[in-house]
Amino acid sequence: MTRHLLTLFDLSGDEINRLLARARWLKAERLAGRRHLPLAGKALAMIFEKPSTRTRVSFEVAMYQLGGHALYLSAEGSQLGRGETYADTARVLSRMVDGIMVRTFEQDRIAALAAAATVPVINGLTDLSHPCQILADLVTVMEERGTLEGCRICYVGDGNNVCNSWIEAAVQLGFTLAVATPPGFEPAAVLRERIARDGHRHIMLGDDPRVAVAGSHVVNTDTWVSMGQEGEDLERKRAVFAPFQVNRRLMQHAAPDAIVLHCLPAHRGEEITDEVMDGPQSRVFDQAENRLHAQKALLEMLLG
Ligand code: CP
Ligand code: NVA
Questions:
Q1: Can you give the pLDDT of all 304 residues of the chain as single tens digits?
Q2: CA–CA gap between residue 64 and residue 77 (Å, rounded)
Q3: Which atom of ligand 1 is nearest to the CA of 58?
């Protein structure tokens, strides 16, 4: 059966742990100047229906460094923009490439593509989930702390795709996760229901940023306006989200050795201040680099 990565629920906890270790090994190998070309002769199609800097560059460079090739397809520049179905697109691409990465809107779109594909489909961000991001984030946490044992991670801000994937990771790996989102901007209902149903007491959902940050070793945030939400009432949103800004005052509640993560791009002065983003606790650029290493491990696992 073809393996896909549509959310982190498609990987077991053991698989995620192995993948994180492999990513760190690949990073060290790269630094040592050693090459590994397990994907020689393989190709990855990358469909982008939303903009990207990190995801596109990291997937494209990852395929190159593993000996393969990546090709970029935009909605407008391909027949998707003229209404060719996701299923037909998947059937055609499956005849020519060894994997398909997709960045799109509703989860249904990537699900339709995966249902018809006979090669692995990888979620490069949907409205629901951003699993590749959280794999890189976990690599960054492991580099910092060596283990997730005893680690308290928090997420403060919009209950969006990044927040949802942190919850997916906490379900699969069992670490302590505290989430604070404003009322009306909670994580996806499907995840809230799952936490309630399965009694994941190590995952705490609330609306008080100071409570979530208290004693945390890793403080995460993300934009208040995700791609596709640009038309919403921004002024109202900014007022609602103001107490959720990751600034020096909020960071005083975190563990003294806490690190700060942001998937980027940041809206400096909104969800995070310059002072924190450029300060000693920030690991945001290591985190961005780790997209490359995490994706290499993932591509090896799915396409190798
Ligand atoms: N973090 C992230 O996915 O960045 P891009 O939108 O630049 O790909
Ligand atoms: N939540 C953001 C993440 C960007 C990488 C968005 O969906 O726009």
A1: 899 999 999 999 999 999 999 999 999 999 999 999 999 999 999 999 999 999 999 999 999 999 999 999 999 999 999 999 999 999 999 999 999 999 999 999 999 999 999 999 999 999 999 999 999 999 999 999 999 999 999 999 999 999 999 999 999 999 999 999 999 999 999 999 999 999 999 999 999 999 999 999 999 999 999 999 998 888 999 999 999 999 999 999 999 999 999 999 999 999 999 999 999 999 999 999 999 999 999 999 999 9
A2: 23
A3: 8
- What is the 8-class DSSP label of residue 36? -
Atom nearest to 225 CA in ligand 2: 8
Question: Which superfamily is assigned to 8-130+291-303 in CATH?
Answer: Aspartate/ornithine carbamoyltransferase (3.40.50.1370)
Asked if residue 52 has its Cβ within 6 Å of ligand 2, the reply is no
Question: What is the distance in A from the centroid of ligand 1 to the CA of 54?
Answer: 5
In 3D space, the residue among 144, 155, 122 whose CA is nearest the CA of residue 55 turns out to be: 122
Tokens of 189: 């209902």
Q: What backbone torsions phi and psi does residue 35 show, to the nearest 5 degrees?
A: -105, 145
Which residue, 95, 84, 86, 87, is CA-closest to 119? 95
Pick the CATH number of 133-287 from 3.30.360.10, 3.40.30.10, 3.40.50.1370, 3.40.50.720: 3.40.50.1370
Does 133-287 match 8-130+291-303 at the fold level? Answer: yes
**Do residues 270 and 226 touch, judged by C-beta distance below 8 A?**
no
Please state, in angstroms and rounded to a whole number, the distance separating the CA atoms of residues 142 and 57: 23
